[in-house]
Amino acid sequence: MSSRPKAFGNLMAEVIRPKLCVGCGGCSAVCPLNSIEMAGSTPRLVSLCISCGMCYNNCPRTSFDKETLEERAFGATGGESEIGFYRGLYAVRALDERIRERCQDGGAVTALLAHRLSEGCVAVVAGLKSNGVWEPQPMVVSTLEELLEAAGTKYTPSPTLVGVASAVKEYMAEHVAVVGTPCQVTALRRLQLGDHSEAKFSKALDLIVGLFCMETFDYGRLMEFLKSKGVEPKDVHKFDIKRGRFLAYGADGENLLRVKLREMEELVRECCHHCADFTSELADISVGNVGSPDGWSTVIVRSDRGEEALRGAEKEGLIEVKPLDEVEPGLEAVVKLARFKRERAKA
């Protein structure tokens, strides 16, 4: 006799209550009855559950075969590599001054998305709520102006897959590029290529851009921390992390805060301590600031789609590309942090 499908109740018992939930919004996005809604970064069952198992089997925190997803996405697996499978390693920076002025590090993510927008895609990114202060929300954008408005790292969670559902179901988008953290990327790949994939998502996902991520902060705790340091969140124009320090800048570029990351350990979300993926190993293309000089982004190309996006943006004159082994500190800096995150997750 076949076993009963695992449903939202199982997700609650195994993922949400133990504080393993990453708040990606995948369960809400894939529910066929729209019975799951996000309350902040926590899923809530608000209507009938038919025990279809889609939410449970597409969650990035339930069991799945990573190598199978790698084979389906890349035609190969990462094996023992600390950064997963890859076909190219580069240092990249945007050439458009508007992008470089507004964006994080080398602006590679925004430049790659700008290229996909020019090819007819929409993009799902983490923007900010209009009535909140530094409170992220997923946004569906279709112009460079909208993309620039949403640019910059937030360091707190956004239910990105709710935005993907909006792009596919409400905007009826046929080609969607998405930016996400490693946990969000895992959920996207399960929706696209997993054993319980969802057809609309599989067809529409055009490019998955993954971010390097060591951890994210709880939104409420971060806002309180800023205030405890004499910084009003509404006065912050940009956040950054450089050389083990968390930085906050005002609109005029003034440094409002500079603290060591170890001072912020209590702000880290509990779910992050269980994550072993630093470089978004299941993305088409992964981007971060570790490994490249200031003003450049490190880019890991993993799939054909990732390669096409990189070369398309280069051909369009949006980016400058160098092999990563031509810059300092190079790959070893990325591997060092990836290895550290894997070991931390095992502890």
Task: Kindly describe this structure.
It is a single chain. The chain is α+β, with helices and mostly antiparallel strands and 347 residues long. It has two domains: 8-216 and 269-346, no CATH class; 219-267, Nuclear Transport Factor 2, Chain: A. The protein is built from 13 helices and 13 strands. The chain has helices at residues 8-16, 26-30, 54-57, 66-74, 97-102, 108-118, 144-150, 160-170, 182-193, 199-204, 219-228, 304-315, 331-346; strands spanning 36-39, 42-45, 88-94, 122-128, 136-141, 176-180, 205-211, 238-242, 245-249, 255-260, 285-288, 297-301, 319-323. Strands 5-4-6-7-11-12-3-13 form an eight-stranded mixed β-sheet, sandwiched between helices. The longest helix is centred in the last third of the chain and has 16 residues, at 331-346. The chain starts with 7 loop residues before the first helix and ends with a helix.
